[in-house]
């Protein structure tokens, strides 16, 4: 079911968005060569506890997950492109890290993701990250009253194609509200002028993610982490936004 939220409810979502943004900022500053993924997860867990917030991931167990997720973050490194299960791994010089974080504050959820390179960066990795960020900006710009859901996907897809990147449509954005994943599904490609009419009060997560050389993925033996089929690296950028009469409102702006 697709929900529309009134102006008061959207305003009540702002603290969740600000908190998620603050956690990702702290994680970005903490990430570095030699830092363990479990240290990053522990930092997020402490911030959640200090804020009195609730993790959206700890008990999360959708059909595609082998077991409840059990951690506060998704930490995807290099060819791990989505849903990276935190584990005992110290980041190496040049690693491409994507961090996805969602939690609930006062009953409202916000969801966001950021990608970065620790240490010396390969220019190709930086370009990949930049492409996801540009695609996110394009998708947000298309999220206006009077457009259709396909306009968001088309805007994202155009950026990917201009960069020569393939697009996977198995996972994408989604509705956000009282729960982390709701309707509608927001694909990272589409046909302009097609699909659900965008109305004020729709709150969605827009999340472009691309891989250097493929659109195919496989599931790691950990039962959660999704990896590129050819071993190429991936990047992921995401914001939770509200569609308003005055344009898109980025709730998780950092």
Salient structural properties:
254 residues, 5-stranded antiparallel beta sheet, alpha+beta, single chain, Creatine Amidinohydrolase, 4-stranded antiparallel beta sheet
Layout of strands and helices, then pairs:
Blueprint: H1 7-30, H2 37-51, E1 54-55, E2 74-77, E3 80-82, E4 96-105, E5 108-117, H3 123-141, H4 149-162, E6 173-175, E7 182-186, E8 203-206, E9 209-211, E10 217-219, E11 226-228, E12 234-236, E13 239-244, E14 247-250
Helix pairs in contact: 1-2, 3-4
What is the structure about, briefly put?
The protein is of the alpha+beta class and 254 residues long. It is 28% helix and 25% strand.
- Sheet with most strands: strand arrangement: 7-6-8-13-14
Secondary structure tally: strands: 14
CATH topology: Creatine Amidinohydrolase
Q: Helix- and strand-based class?
A: alpha+beta
CATH class: Alpha Beta
CATH superfamily: Creatinase/methionine aminopeptidase superfamily
Number of domains: 1
Radius of gyration: 17 Å
Specify the helix fraction band: 25-40%
Mean of all residue-level pLDDT scores: 97
Determine the strand fraction and express it as a percent band.
15-25%
Sum up the overall morphology in one term.
globular
What is the number of helices? 4
Largest sheet: 5 strands, antiparallel
Low-confidence stretches: none
* Secondary-structure element pattern, one letter each: HHEEEEEHHEEEEEEEEE
Write the CATH architecture name: Alpha-Beta Complex
The separation of the N and C termini measures: 29 Å
Explain this structure.
There is one protein chain. This protein has helices at 7-30, 37-51, 123-141, 149-162; strands at residues 54-55, 74-77, 80-82, 96-105, 108-117, 173-175, 182-186, 203-206, 209-211, 217-219, 226-228, 234-236, 239-244, 247-250. The strands form four sheets. It has a five-stranded antiparallel β-sheet. Helices cover 28% and strands 25% of the residues. The model has no long low-confidence stretch (mean pLDDT 97). The chain is globular, with a radius of gyration of 17 Å. The chain has 254 residues and is of the alpha+beta class. The longest helix is centred in the N-terminal third of the chain and has 24 residues, at 7-30. The chain is built from four helices and 14 strands. It has one domain: Creatine Amidinohydrolase. Helix 1 (7-30) runs antiparallel to helix 2 (37-51).
């Amino acid at each position: 079911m697709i929900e529309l939220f009134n102006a008061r409810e959207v305003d009540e979502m702002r603290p969740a968005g600000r908190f998620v943004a603050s956690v990702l900022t702290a994680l970005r500053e903490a990430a570095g060569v030699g830092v363990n993924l479990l240290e990053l997860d522990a930092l997020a867990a402490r911030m959640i506890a200090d804020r009195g917030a609730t993790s959206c991931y700890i008990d999360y167990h959708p059909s595609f997950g082998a077991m409840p997720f059990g951690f506060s973050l998704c930490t995807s490194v290099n060819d791990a492109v989505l849903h990276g299960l935190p584990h005992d791994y110290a980041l190496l010089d040049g690693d491409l890290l994507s961090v996805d974080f969602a939690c609930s504050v006062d009953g409202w959820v916000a969801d966001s993701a950021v990608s970065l390179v620790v240490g010396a960066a390969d220019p190709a990795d930086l370009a990949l990250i930049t492409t996801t960020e540009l695609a996110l900006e394009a998708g947000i710009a298309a999220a206006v009253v009077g457009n259709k859901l396909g306009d968001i996907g088309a805007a994202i897809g155009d950026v990917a194609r201009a960069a020569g990147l393939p697009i996977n449509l198995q996972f994408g954005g989604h509705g956000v509200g009282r729960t982390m994943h709701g309707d509608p599904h927001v694909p990272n490609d589409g046909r302009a002028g097609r699909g659900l009419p965008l109305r004020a009060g729709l709150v969605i997560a827009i999340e472009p993610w691309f891989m250097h050389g493929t659109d195919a993925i496989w599931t790691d033996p950990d039962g959660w982490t999704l990896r590129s089929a050819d071993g190429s690296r991936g990047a992921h950028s995401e914001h939770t936004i509200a569609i308003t009469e005055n344009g898109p409102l980025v709730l998780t702006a950092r």
